[in-house]
UniProtKB/TrEMBL annotation:
Presence of the UniProt keyword Oxidoreductase in the record: yes
PANTHER family (UniProt xref): NAD(P)-LINKED OXIDOREDUCTASE SUPERFAMILY PROTEIN (PTHR43364:SF4), NADH-SPECIFIC METHYLGLYOXAL REDUCTASE-RELATED (PTHR43364)
Stretches that traverse the bilayer: none
Alphabetized GO MF terms: oxidoreductase activity
Keywords, sorted A to Z: Oxidoreductase
Pfam entry (one): Aldo_ket_red
Protein name: Aryl-alcohol dehydrogenase-like predicted oxidoreductase
UniProt GO cellular component terms: cytosol
Organism name: Actinomadura namibiensis
Top-rank taxon, per record: Bacteria
CDD domains per the UniProt record, alphabetical: AKR_AKR9A_9B (cd19080)
Chain ranges of the NADP-dependent oxidoreductase domain: 16-294
Amino acid sequence: MRYRLLGNTGLRVSEVFLGAMTFGERTGRVGLDEARRIVGLYEDAGGNVIDTADMYGAGESEEVVGEVVAGRRDRFVLATKYTCTRDRTDLNAGGNHRKNLTRALEESLRRLNTDYIDLYWAHVWDPFTPVEEMMRALDDAVRAGKVLYVGISDAPAWVVARANALAEWHGWTPFAGLQVPYNLLHRDIERELLPMAEALGLTVASWRPLAHGALAGRPRRDLDDRESAVVETLAKVAAELEVTPAQAAIAWVRARSRAVCPILGASRADQLRETLGAVEVTLPKEAVDRLTAAAALDPGFPHDFIAPHPGIHGDAVDRLDVR
């Protein structure tokens, strides 16, 4: 396992994160004993980031994570999220505003059995809360020592860029990371979010790298023609390289941008053992190109309109070397 810096900070994070969404018996997925095996396997491989959220298993995921890391909490970068409602009958029990952040943070600290959270994510953009309020409230949590770094999940690129511009102007803590879905079947972030993150120096924690198992070699009947073609190409590439489809799919995500750190989830330790093998897989350029072509993305407007061409830049544009 190798390590990277989280965004524009000095925090060292492993090149793949461990997702704890399945942790908790109330979800019917991963009990405490299996969670210990999963985290132990991840730790033995050198991983140090465990990602959860207050809504996973109605808080049970955080409780399990807190119990599993007890006694060695400082060895891990604990990441959790707030935003989603804790009470559907109370409008203030959800959202990115200061009141919900304050209550949600205290409850997460209690469940995780810790006095600080390394990386605190806004779980999703809340269009009803001013960006200024969210950033100032998060900065207050950092200044209080309850949070060390902040990030945002599932938000438009313009929101993230504006939030970090405000943080820079006011001396507040900026977002260090962005959490978004990214895989061979769903490349939407390449239009705006990934270029924005790369330009601003943000770490991209990518969830669903296996597209709900569709890229792990598991038979699926709900795939359209394009998706089926991608899965078929992935299987051929994986066989040629003598790796599993899951490992090839995760390796493709990692090859697309050094900003990306895939989040690996698992219901069993043996599943994680397979996907962790992706960190040892380096896809040849030809394989990356084949997979990328099979999963072709229409960039849409304005990207297809402003792509370099002689009509805009003149006939000598092909002689311009860009960084």
